[in-house]
């Protein structure tokens, strides 16, 4: 629940700095391709409802992949 105009102004200030890396506590870090990252972040305040989260089985599959137990 953010004011879209304030969010956009803050995002534009970051964009003007031309950062090479954007770190975040709530999203992956963006390296080099920071402009698409900022554009995606700008859509968050106007999203319809919360993002669906994985269930326990999906979480366990993700953890298996991360820990190298998957076939990919």
Polypeptide structure, described:
- With 72 residues, this protein is mainly alpha-helical.
- The protein has one domain.
- The protein is 47% helix and 6% strand.
- It has a two-stranded antiparallel sheet with strand order 1-2.
- Helix 1 runs antiparallel to helix 2.
- The longest helix has 13 residues.
- It starts with a helix and ends in a 6-residue tail after the last helix.
- 1% of the residues are buried.
- The model has no long low-confidence stretch (mean pLDDT 83).
Order of strands, main sheet, comes to: 1-2
Q: What is the total number of structural domains? A: 1
**Most strands sheet:** 2 strands, antiparallel
- SSE order in H/E notation? HEEHH
Shape: flat
Number of strands: 2
Based on CA atoms alone, the radius of gyration comes out at 16 Å
Separate helix tally? 3
Helix content: 40-55%
Alpha carbon gap, first and last residue: 38 Å
Structural class: mainly alpha
Spans of 5+ residues with little confidence (pLDDT < 50)? none
The fraction of residues in strands falls at 5-15%
- Mean pLDDT, rounded to whole units? 83
């Amino acid at each position: 629940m953010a004011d879209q105009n304030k969010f956009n102004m803050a995002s534009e200030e970051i964009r003007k700095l031309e950062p090479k890396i954007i770190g975040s506590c709530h999203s992956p870090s963006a390296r080099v391709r920071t402009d698409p990252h900022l554009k995606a972040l700008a859509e968050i305040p106007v999203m319809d409802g919360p993002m669906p989260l994985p269930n326990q089985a999906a979480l366990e599959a993700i953890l298996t992949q991360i820990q190298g137990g998957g076939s990919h």
